Amino acid sequence: MRKLPREFYGRPDVLAVARELLGKVLVTRIKGVITAGVITETEAYMGAVDKASHAYGGKVTPRNRVMYGKAGVAYVYLCYGIHHLFNVVTNAEGTAHAVLVRAIHPVQGQDVMMARRKTKVLTTAGPGTLTQALGIRTEHNGTDLLGNLIHIEDRGILIPDGVVSTGPRIGVDYAGEDALLPYRFLFNPRILA
DNA sequence: ATACCGATTAACT
DNA sequence: GTTAATCGGTATA
Questions:
Q1: For residue A1, what pLDDT is reported?
Q2: Whose C1' is closest to the CA of A77: which nucleotide?
Q3: CA of A164: how far to CAs of A20, A110, A188, in Å?
Q4: Backbone torsions φ then ψ of A87, nearest 5 degrees
Q5: Distance CA A72, CA A98 (A)
Q6: d(CA A53, CA A64)
Q7: How far apart are CA A179 and CA A4, in angstroms?
Q8: Closest-lying nucleotide for A85 based on CA to C1'
């Protein structure tokens, strides 16, 4: 139940942070209700030098400005007018690196997740579905993950390199050659059972 | 002020 | 495999 410290997020290697977030547990406490899931898929976004990043070229906008802030803060934004996507800001202040959480494996509050999702079977594999299950919305943009609303903790789950797959990021075809970079990390949640 | 479109999903055929 | 849903961010003027 160790909450990840600021230093975990603040490291300069966003790929290492993305890789090591696999197996960590994303926990929300929305209106006192706790829901949590093991992170099973992430993608790294390398800020100014990454054509797939909202911060490519050092661009600053009202939406992406929290990416330039301190590490360990949530960057949440609306995609396709429907989906709230959850990212963790990494690296030093002024460097807009971030890790997108694309999938979780539910471990706590599944009943609440079901109620939030309103579907027959609980799906939390997908960046828009996990945020809905955990109750994360754009209002949580800028939330400090060292606070008690949203945090990520280490419950001692080790994901060995042998079970981790990497590959190109999803949905970033517009990013030219950067769309091919192997910045996506995932493992099959079946190994948790 | 106006127009375009996306780090997606579920429900179709 | 195809597509409707849905709207804030961003660029252009």
A1: 75
A2: C8
A3: 11, 25, 8
A4: -125, 155
A5: 9
A6: 10
A7: 30
A8: B7
What are the residues with a C-beta under 7 Å from any atom of nucleic chain C? A 54, 59, 61-64, 77-78, 80-82
Looking from the CA of A137 toward its CB, the CA atoms found within 13 Å total 6
Which one is the CATH code of A2-155: 1.10.3300.10, 3.40.50.620, 3.10.300.10, 3.40.50.1100? 3.10.300.10
How confident is the model at residue A10, as a pLDDT?
Answer: 98
pLDDT tens string A64-111: 999 999 999 999 999 999 999 999 999 999 999 999 999 999 999 999
- Positions of strand B less than 7 angstroms from a protein CB: 6-11
* Structure tokens belonging to residue A82: 């429907």
Amino acid at A120: K
Kindly indicate the confidence band of residue A158, based on its pLDDT and cuts at 50, 70 and 90.
Answer: very high
Q: Residues 11-30 of chain A: which lie with beta carbon within 7 Å of strand B?
A: none
User: What would the two tokens of residue A162 be?
Assistant: 């042998």
| Distance in angstroms: CA A120, C1' C3 | 22
